[in-house]
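Design request, tokens follow.
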């Protein structure tokens, strides 16, 4: 899903080795959004990952890491493929402009910056970014339940898996299935089935609401919850809370042999256990010695959660299971 809501205050990032230019740009852009800045090009990608900007103003000439390299690094990250980058430069050379556009920049702001020009261009590109975000949002939401769809989940999982492998932070996953949903549909009708799925999705979204957590409809009556910076114990606690939250909905299910109301089963997996079970590493978070030769991927985390869900269903349903028997 989108990193920020299309209606949120815009986030602007300035990368320039000249503090005077930064101060001038901040003054020009006052009131147009939240502004973060750095004078070091090598810090730009890390700042972008933590700040999630909607637009970047980038100087071309910087020591050590120039603007071309910074732009290329940022654009190589799928999370920022739609973020407009405007080069701030005193150069008007065609070759330089061509190179800047080839590495992913969208436009230029001349130095010294003229306030009306800067504000107009930033305003236009922020509006374009907002429309892009709105379109992306429409393509990443499940039409029935209002939570993320499979496409949005796949993109977020790939991003968070790579982040976890890079930083050593924990990452967990919950695979959730509505118990005996076919029986529910047969007994109460498909409209009631749709209402049930919407209610379950709402309960999941209410429980998983920390920054970065993502609830998605995985298919049919299956949901999946992505939990960045969440270890095994925390994930199990959350899963148990979700189990109770759905039971408390008290949706009648007379055809279930588990309970008189709708229940769910949950399988839990974590990146630590997936790595350890594959004998890829003894994962002391942040000390992975195998990342350059690792053959694991985000699909392994999903597979582990799916197998745990299968065990939860096979051993009685309406329960949380971690690991594979």
């Amino acid at each position: 899903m989108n990193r920020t809501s299309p209606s949120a205050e815009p986030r602007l990032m300035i990368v320039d080795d000249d503090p005077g230019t930064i101060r001038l740009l901040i003054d020009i852009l006052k009131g147009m959004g939240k502004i973060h800045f750095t004078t070091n090009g090598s810090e730009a990608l890390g700042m972008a990952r933590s700040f999630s900007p909607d637009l970047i103003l980038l100087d071309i000439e910087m020591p050590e890491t120039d603007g071309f390299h910074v732009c290329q690094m940022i654009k190589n990250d799928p999370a920022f493929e739609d973020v407009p980058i405007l080069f701030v430069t005193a150069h008007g050379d065609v070759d330089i402009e061509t190179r800047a556009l080839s590495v992913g920049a969208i436009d230029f702001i001349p130095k010294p910056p003229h306030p009306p020009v800067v504000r107009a261009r930033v305003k236009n590109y922020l509006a374009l970014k907002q429309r892009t975000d709105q379109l992306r949002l429409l393509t990443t939401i499940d039409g029935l339940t209002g939570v993320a769809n499979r496409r949005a989940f796949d993109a977020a999982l790939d991003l968070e898996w790579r982040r976890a492998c890079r930083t050593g932070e924990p990452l967990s996953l919950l695979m959730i299935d509505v118990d005996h949903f076919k029986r529910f549909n047969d007994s109460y009708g498909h409209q009631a089935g749709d209402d049930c799925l919407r209610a379950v999705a709402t309960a999941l979204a209410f429980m998983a609401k920390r920054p970065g957590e993502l609830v998605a409809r995985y298919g049919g009556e299956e949901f999946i919850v992505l939990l960045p910076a969440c270890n095994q114990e925390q994930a199990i606690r959350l899963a148990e809370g979700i189990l109770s939250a759905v039971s408390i909905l008290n949706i009648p299910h007379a055809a279930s042999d588990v309970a008189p109301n709708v229940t769910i089963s949950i399988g839990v997996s974590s990146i630590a256990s997936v790595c350890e079970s594959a004998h890829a590493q003894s994962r002391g978070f942040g000390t992975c010695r195998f990342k350059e030769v690792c053959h694991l991927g985000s699909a392994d985390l999903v597979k582990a959660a799916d197998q745990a869900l299968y065990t939860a269903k096979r051993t009685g349903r309406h329960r949380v299971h971690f690991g594979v028997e």
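Comment from the thread starter after seeing the answer: thanks! The chain has two domains: 11-136, 150-322.
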